[in-house]
Amino acid sequence: MAQAPRCRGVERQARQKFARTILNTPSVQVCDSTASMIVRKFGLRQSRQLLALTRQTPISRRFLSTEFETPVANPATEVQTPPKETIVPSENPLHEVVQASRTQKTAEAEAWGRWVGQRRKFNRIGSEVEEAYDPEMVIRSPPRPSDITLELLLASGTHLGHSTSRWNPQNSRYIFGIREGVHIISLDATAAYLRRAAKVVEEVAARGGIILFAGTRKGQKRAVVRAAELAKGYHIFERWIPGALTNGQQILGHCETMVVNAVDEKLEEFKRDLADRPSVKPDLVVCLNPLENVVMLHECGLNNVPTIGIIDTDADPTRVTYPIPANDDSLRATDLIVGILGRAGQAGQKRRLEAAQEGKTTYKPITAEQLRLDPFTGVLPGSEQKKQF
Predict the structure, then answer these.
(1) How wide is the angle at C-alpha 169 spanned by C-alphas 306 and 299, nearest 5°?
(2) What is the residue-averaged pLDDT of the chain?
(3) Superfamily grouping for domain 137-363
């Protein structure tokens, strides 16, 4: 019984020594049963962690190719895959900038191509507008007299007149009705009188007559010049000089006069015979604005020169020989009317030249003796012989 405490003391010392060894702390005090339990648990945890750290990981080994049979590829059954392009990154920044620019241009070109395709596709959808109004088309290529329709006159605004308070009662036969205090001109009357005026212009041009186109309002210059070119006539787009017909020798005496044959070739041998001749008067005058050219129309009446004029609801139709009831305030309407008359003159000139090529004349030509006669006395200069009519 005396050895039991001694054994217990030895056992206690052994436990303390083991605890100091594990904890590496020499001053640890451990009691009997509690210390032994803590030490055992701590040692168990530490031993598991040490075992996990010292455990060797398995190393996977590759078998040698001689240990197994290597499958051989069959070209007949193997699917051929195209080699992928290897993109090697460039270290040059300039090359990268150029490459990015090319990529951007390619993307823009593809987007443009897609947009063009969509535009072609969607342009076929919906209604098709076959004809559209072009203001320059009436001047560049005016319609012919055969193209006159009520729809064309209506679209040009030739039916619009003035207020009912400004109307001239002599135009009552041309008026279709009244709408919102404005007189409406009959399109049937406009078409009929326009066709008649076009026929007059064509016949005068076919007989070698001189046609004068006059339009002095702002914006009428181009249409007047174009009509004169078609009819091979003359034009005036500025203010009419009073006395140009009644006193033409004083006002237009400095203008050159020439003599032409049937095919419009100039004859120089008659130039000296024209020195004492009076100024040439037109055979037909086309006026687009009669209200501003009353003096011109009066002089034409004094010299028996026929006239054609656009007569609005506030104008006097008796001032012209061949009135055309229409709207004279609209440039679209006046351009259309003067363009049709110019086309009529072109057709007449074509007929005259075709007849001249065949040796025919559509008018009575003047002879050299008649050209030398005094225009006032009708006799040759220096003789008493009178002109035989």
Answers:
(1) 25
(2) 80
(3) Glucose-6-phosphate isomerase like protein; domain 1 (3.40.50.10490)
